[in-house]
Each structure stands twice: as C-alpha cells, then as structure tokens.
Amino acid sequence: MEIDLSPKLAKKVYGGDGGAYYAWCPNELPMLREGNIGAAKLALEKNGFAMPRYSDSAKVAYVLQGSGVAGIVLPEKEEKVVAIKKGDALALPFGVVTWWYNKQDPELVILFLGDTSTGHKSGSFTDLFLTGPNGIFTGFSTEFVGRAWDLDEATVKTLVGTQTGKGIVKLDPGFKMPEPKKEHYKGMALNCEEAPLDVDIKDGGKVVVLNTKNLPLVGEVGLGADLVRLNGNAMCSPGFSCDSALQVTYIVRGSGRVQVVGVDGKRVLETTIKAGNLFIVPRFFVVSKISDPEGMDWFSIITTPNPIFTHLAGRTSVWKALSPQVLQASFNVPADVEQKFSSKRKAEEIFFPPPN
Fold first, then answer.
1. Residues with Cβ < 8 Å from 249, sequence gap 6 or more?
2. Phi, psi angle pair for 146, to nearest 5°
3. Which pick of 48, 84, 214, 250 has the fewest CB atoms within 10 Å?
4. Rounded to 5 degrees, what angle do the CA atoms 56, 249, 246 make?
C-alpha cells in the first residue's frame, strides 16, 4: 500500500493561558508510524511554564522562536538551567527530566523531533508529568507517597492535590524562577544560527550540521540534525541518505517546492511546502527542493547521529566520480551529449544559485 508523504501541520493536543502543546498525528502522517518518528511543538506565552516531565523517547529540541529557560536533569545528575533562544538545538536522551519557561514576549516556540521505536505509541511521544492532576504521584496512595517523601498525610495531600493545571501553567509575573547559568549551556545546547558553517555556497545556501563532534549528547540520542538555509530561488541538489536513515524535515521559514522520487523512478511527492510543514523522506528515496524568492529554511533530523548523504548533481555528486564511458553507456547518448553533461556543475555543490 502506498504511503501518503504529503506535508502536514501540527494540531493542538492541550494547553491553556500559559501556552499549548501541539503534535503531528501518525494517522494523518503515516510515515511517523512507519519510521518510528515523533514530532511535536511547545508554545509558551509570557510567564508560561511547562512543568517537569520525562518522555518515552529520545529527542532533539530546536527553538523556533523567542527565548526562555530550560531546566534539564540527566539521570543521576544535577539540574542544568540553560538560557535558550531562537536557533538553539538541544539533545534530550532517554530518562531526562525537563521543564521550560518563558519569562517575556514574544511567544517561545520549541520543536521536538525524536525516535519512538521504544515508546508506548509508534509515531507519538508520550510525556509523563511529575506534578499536576495527571502527574505520576496522583496515582500513588498517600501512604506510598508519604513513605517515599517522609511526609505526613496532610502535607502529601497539599503537595499532590494543589496544582490543577495540566502540563502547562501561567505563573504570576512576580514569581522568580531559577536564573540560567552560562556554564550550563556548553555541552547541552548549540546555536545553529551562530555555529561555524559546514557548508556555505554563495547565493546558494548554508548548512550547520548537528553531530557528535559539536554536541556529543546527540550520540546518546541516536539522531543527527541540521539547519539548512536556502537562498531565494536556489535549488538543493537531488540526494539521498546512503546509510538507511530517514529524513524528517520541518520548514522553519519561507516556502518552496519539493519533489521526492522513489522505487522504479516514481515521483511519490510533488508539492509546495511552507513554514510549519513537516514531511518525511523514506529510506534511500531521493529528495530535492527549490525555494521561492524569499528563500526557505528547514530543520531536519536524520535517524543516525553521523549521517552520510549522496548527491546526484554538482561537483561532489556521484556523476562526477563515474568515468565518461560509464555515463555515455548508462544514458545511451552520443559522446558530445555526455561531454556537455560532464562540463556542467564543476564548481557548484549541494546548492545551486538561481539561473541568470
């Protein structure tokens, strides 16, 4: 049965005055379930607080908008309080407890992409909250909680029963949350908009790759990621992941067109993509994008921490590595046609500026 690869927008799952949590549904985007991928967004208003929770899936978080504070507790480690802003990426391994807070305007928006292969639901994240009416301790008896925390019954009931908000609440403006520490940022986050560029093609585009070298925690997450910024009317070379990885792409800014080609040369996707869209490219399928005049940025995860790509156009493409005779025989064309083909794209790689 053919799988629908059409890009989709996230839908609201829960929220209130403090903000909202959105997710992509595997029923609407079947490749989420097929690839064991989860995708969600957290949007916090001013003074919005996403209460402590942990997840059944390892994730990469990417700040799409605004700035705020993240609290991160790795298993058996001390709390890290990290200042986050637009462009920051964080790797969140299994077992990590996190909280998120926005103390100012504008809205703080964070994207989460991750692997659900060991989760409760394939294609969806399941978060388990530490407090609130759906928190873990509401399920335990007061006897068990009291024994665990060494507290009397009245205090246990106050602690467990007072918070009525689920997942996200709005704090009073005067409430003082922990201040972030500069030393906590290193090793926990990397700003993809400020990091050294891995690719920089004049009038074409730029890439920053998130891997075990610049953010070692991605090794524990088991995912790689990148931020691509494509110039106006530029093209991203047709290419595929040659290590059996899936590409999960979220359009951060702008718009453009995408084509995906799969088995037997069949075009399985041809559509317009815009900010907020998420789509997934199956293993070994070839994808290419062309941006609209305003350009297009996207953030992707790849289901391996150090991905390898093969490009099918440009200086570093497989075509430039093949001998002329193989090209001529494969295309079944005269030598002059092969020579014209081989003479093109000798300087450009990965991104191609718009035609003159």
1. 278, 279, 280, 281, 298, 299, 300
2. -60, -40
3. 214
4. 70
How many domains is the chain partitioned into structurally?
A: 2
- Burial-class residue 247 by CB neighbours within 10 Å (0-12, 13-18, 19+): buried
Give me the half-sphere count of Cα atoms (radius 13 Å) on the Cβ side of residue 253. 16
- Whether residue 338 sits in one domain with residue 244: yes
Catalogue the E-assigned strands of 17-158.
19-23, 37-44, 48-55, 58-65, 67-73, 80-85, 88-92, 97-102, 108-115, 127-129
Same domain, 251 and 343: yes
Task: In whole angstroms, give the CA distance from residue 72 to residue 70.
Answer: 6
Farthest-apart Cα atoms in the chain, separation: 88
Displacement of CA 278 from its chain's centroid (Å): 10
Q: Are residues 52 and 172 in the same domain?
A: yes
Residue 2 lies in a domain: no
219 and 173 assigned to the same domain: no
- 278-281 and 48-55 beta bridge pairing: unpaired
For residue 127, the enclosing domain spans: 8-132+167-185
Distant-in-sequence, close-in-space partners of 308: CB < 8 Å, separation ≥ 6 = 241, 242, 243
Phi then psi for residue 319, to 5 deg, are: -65, -35
Considering the domain architecture, whether residues 320 and 271 belong to the same structural domain is answered as yes
Opening angle at CA 199, ends 198 and 200, nearest 5: 130
Q: Flag whether the pTM goes above 0.85.
A: yes
pLDDT tens digits in sequence order for the chain, 356 residues long: 478 999 999 999 999 999 999 999 999 999 999 999 999 999 999 999 999 999 999 999 999 999 999 999 999 999 999 999 999 999 999 889 999 999 999 999 999 999 999 899 999 999 999 999 999 999 999 999 999 999 999 999 999 999 999 999 999 999 999 999 999 999 999 999 999 999 999 999 999 999 889 999 988 998 889 999 999 999 999 999 887 788 999 999 999 999 999 999 999 999 999 999 999 999 999 999 999 999 999 999 988 887 788 899 989 899 999 999 999 999 999 999 999 999 999 888 899 999 87
